[in-house]
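Give me the fold.
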Amino acid sequence: MKNATWLMAAAVLVTVLTGSCKKINEGLDAEKAGNYTIRVKAKSTMSNITNTEGLKVVFENFTEGFRKEDALGADVTAVDGLIPGLYSINVSGRVEDANGDVYYLNGAKINFPVTKNDMLVEIDVAGLKVSPLVFSEIFFAGTTPFYFRNQFYEVYNNSTDTIYLDGLCFANLTPTTATTTLPRWPEEDGNNFAYAERIWKVPGNGTQYPLAPGESFSMAQFAANHQLPQYSPTSPIDCSASEFEFNMNNPNFPDQPAFDMEHVFYNGNAGKGTLPQYLVSVFGGAYVIFRVPEGETYDPVNNPALKTRNLASASTTVFAKIPIRYVLDAVEAGHNENMIAAKRVPSVLDAGMTYVGATYNSLGVARKVSDQKNDDGTPIYLDTNNSTEDFERGVVPQFRRHGSKMPAWNHTK
């Protein structure tokens, strides 16, 4: 009887231990359960920035709901109090170069297994100048039942200077939805590009569309009042005041008074394709705004060096290469918090991911405000190049949240 009791207890113990290890990672055995210390070394890959001291490092185990944050020292930093498991490790923060230009650095390790004490993890970090323009709100999930034409993207002037939007480009990246089956790009590309499915451009002669500090503009899939009976009366948003529209020449969804975005690229061509809609995934896509530097030519349609196929697929679909140095802001969205393991955006552009948790739920994401405001009371938005940290999730979408202003050239004025 005692032997039977002991065997039953042992069986329960094995089951518990097996389930626990499974949470860490199937096939991985932790050295021991308890508090682990991991040593972190961050190395800048940028020639003008050498010091990474003071950058923030975050260990996040989404399976266990565990998060640990610390600041990096001058060389190697010991981060203790960790539990065993798979982690997303992000290093980020602002630094100045010798010229006084401010950069936001990012670097990450995804699905990093913490299975031994005192492991050393080395993370390369790189970054971009702090962007004057940021995505302030994005609505991609649509409205029940299966209405998606109210998608929109709002962009805010987060700087102290007036910015001319003429020529500013918007793109959604591939894959269109987050997936662990990532494309394979040409080896010679290195980490120098983001890959776009479709690109649009703000029209204008160079000074036609000024955006003052504290102002925002929006780009709508269909810039109509979606709450009208013929569209979607339960839509949370009326897009008729949107500044720009992605007009696809669909007679059932006619061109609206908003200014039309110029189409640049789709599947290797300048034409818009045969589908009568510009729909991005209602699960959440990856989006960038970018600017071609003055004096440079960017033509992914006619320049073979600026387009490619996915080399891991037999598909003939062609994608545009966007030099990372062109990118002003990037936001990646996924199905839910666990899709961080399926990132498709280079960490230097966005080290995290945002989400709303479901489709057709009429909810969007909105950038958080910082502790500071402009003199006129308009917000200064948080911008750490990490969408996990920078965005509120599951908000009812609206234009010009937190008192941001409408530009004088909006067609409703």
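The longest helix spans residues 2-24.
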